[in-house]
Amino acid sequence: MFDRKLNMDSIFHEKQEGSLCAQHCLNNLLQGEYFTPVDLSSIAHQLDEEERMRMAEGGMASEEYRTFLQQPSGNMDDSGFFSIQVISNALRVWGLELILFNSREYQSLMINPINENAFICNYKEHWFTIRKLGQQWFNLNSLLTGPELISDTYLALFLAQLQQEGYSIFVIRGNLPECEAEQILRFMRVQQQQRPRLIGEDEAQTSAGRSAALSQAEVGFVVEDEVVDEDEELKRALALSRQDIDVEDEEADLRRAIQLSMQGAVMSNTSPESEAGSVKSGSQAAGSSTGGQSDTLTAEELRKRRQAYFDRQQQQAQSNISQQPDPKSTGGSGSVNTGSEEDQQQKRSQ
């Protein structure tokens, strides 16, 4: 039993080198290294000489002849391109003929493409071969990494697609030389698990993949930096918020301490005058709170107010003492004792 991969490997397939697609097209068609660039150049020079001789028949002194000599060759150029005339003459050596696929003469024959043996396709300066090997068709384009299997049903669609893309298609008529792939594939059909790619496509995809990976990595680094920056900003914002809260808490604690201190000072005075003073002081505090000034009191201002309050209490106590009658004039020891008790009470209150 034949190895299917070995069957595919038996197909001769020249890959693209420079602009020698005409050479690759012919060799892939004939399934061997039958033509070299030197061979095709010789055919091109021969065609150029035949054209020159025809132009000289009109007179070597004519303007048309001098213009023809100044023009470059129409059968080849320095890049390796060869004209359809060169390919046609090369195939004629093997008894093969080119027929234009979409010509009226050929289309009038109503021939199914699968009944042909091979096609040559040309678009601008590129040539490639489609050939039947055994009972199967293969696209032998030199721009592919290997032969591409084409089904019988897809062949007509493929040719129509090429025509729509602007390709000129030529039918190969004649007996193609025998080849190894023809002998092997005559007995067994092959299957292709993976279609070939265009030459350079893998490298391009690999390069594109690396570029995409590098771009993603760079984007990842940028995103990560942005996330780090956002985290740092969030941390700083939380820290500032905590500082503001601590400051507000300290101010609130200070105001509560001042209020408690004021209440303690008021409650420590037990005399009717001190109670009246506490009511007055409370009303003043309420007025200050209403006016929005109590929040601005500092500990030093509070101390000064408390000191002024105590000074007023002391002055009132002294004035009360000076207004009392002399104990000697009253002759009553009780009055003296009473005055002494009041003095002691006032001193304790101070």
TrEMBL record:
UniProt protein name: ubiquitinyl hydrolase 1
Region of interest (Disordered), ranges: 265-350
Subcellular location: Nucleus
Keyword terms, alphabetized: Hydrolase, Nucleus, Protease, Repeat, Thiol protease, Transcription, Transcription regulation, Ubl conjugation pathway
Catalytic residues in the record: 21 (nucleophile), 21, 126, 126 (proton acceptor), 141
Organism whose genome encodes this protein: Scophthalmus maximus
BP-aspect Gene Ontology terms: protein deubiquitination; proteolysis
InterPro entries found in the cross-reference section: Ataxin-3, Josephin, UIM_dom
Gene3D superfamilies: 3.90.70.40, S15/NS1, RNA-binding (1.10.287.10)
Ranges of residues in domain Josephin: 8-187
Catalytic activity as recorded in UniProt: Thiol-dependent hydrolysis of ester, thioester, amide, peptide and isopeptide bonds formed by the C-terminal Gly of ubiquitin (a 76-residue protein attached to proteins as an intracellular targeting signal)
An annotated GO cellular component: nucleus
Alphabetized GO MF terms: cysteine-type deubiquitinase activity
EC main group: hydrolase
Compositional bias per record (Low complexity), positions renumbered to this chain: 281-294, 310-324
Entry EC number(s): 3.4.19.12
Primary site of residence: nucleus
